[in-house]
Amino acid sequence: MNRLAHILRLGLKELTSLRHDSVLLLFLMYAFTVAIYMPAAGSVIGVHNASVALVDEDHSALSRQMAEALQPPEFQAPVSLPYDRLDEVMDSGQYTFVINIPANFQSDLLSGREPAVQVNVDATAMSQAFMGAGYIGRIFQRELLTYANQADTASKTPARLTTRALFNTNLEGGWFLAVIQIVNNITILAIVLTGTALLREREHGTLDHLLVLPLTALEIMLAKIWSNMLVVVLCTWISLEVIVKGVLGVPLAGSMALFLMVTALYLFASTALGIFLATLARSTPQFGLLAIPVIIPMLLLSGGSTPLDSMPQWLQWVMQGSPSTHFVSLSAAILFRDAGVSVVWPDLLALATIGLVFFAIALARFRKSLAS
Description:
Number of strands: 4
Mean pLDDT: 86
Oligomer: single chain
Order of helices and strands: HHHEHEHEHEHHHHHHHHH
């Protein structure tokens, strides 16, 4: 009971210290409000409002029909362009797509020839260039088949492909970005908050004061973990309810209680990692340099930015040892697919195991640093 009382009072001391740190409080507010809303509302995965220019050398009804087929919100209305400006606008990056319909295109098509349409793509706009070229190809193919009275191609194909988008019918990229941004901010704050709190106590001399009290390294470490865990879980819950569900309108189908429990388990692992890094550093700037090569791979290679299946096999195995990999998988499964414990228990078990390993290593290192 004495140990529990020590852990409780030390945690309250951490919360009191955080309450008087106005800069850190402002950063917490920013991380779970503006930093969630801006990427989700402003970043679009796919083709949206892409700029198009059209060099129409045919001036036929078919060429006008093809131009009118490029409609918002995927494409802007095509801008008419003379042929001699084609290279100029491509070099300047003024348009993502510049389409050239050659002279006699319609007459060649009606004569049974196979005329070509040139689609010039500015591939520096990578996501739009890759998908937009495919969109334009399918749109033009549909228009040409319609013009040639072959619109009913489904009956002539050997198989009919039916696509159903589950859990996100309209393929809204902002839904996924909002949740992934919360996951990324939790990762950053869990490591940074605990690491800087420990280093701040060492630099201000308050850690020496704690050492003269009847406290153990385990009690000090658990106090820092539960206090920071409480703050981040509370901020996560408010952000999901107010920003994600309220402002952004993302329908979260899963259990909020289960997700918050998983978040607390993830924070147990990541805060232990933050304490471990803090024991290796001798100052706050040095801790920042140590945290960068740890946090960046956790954010980029955990499956939130790039699917794990697209990575090399050896890297997939390496990232299984990162708690963020399992947390990303759990977040998508619980919040979007309404998965229960019976479905996600393998990731839960892996996350708990990684957390215990990280905690044991951090505790051993923390005890060693206190002894020295």
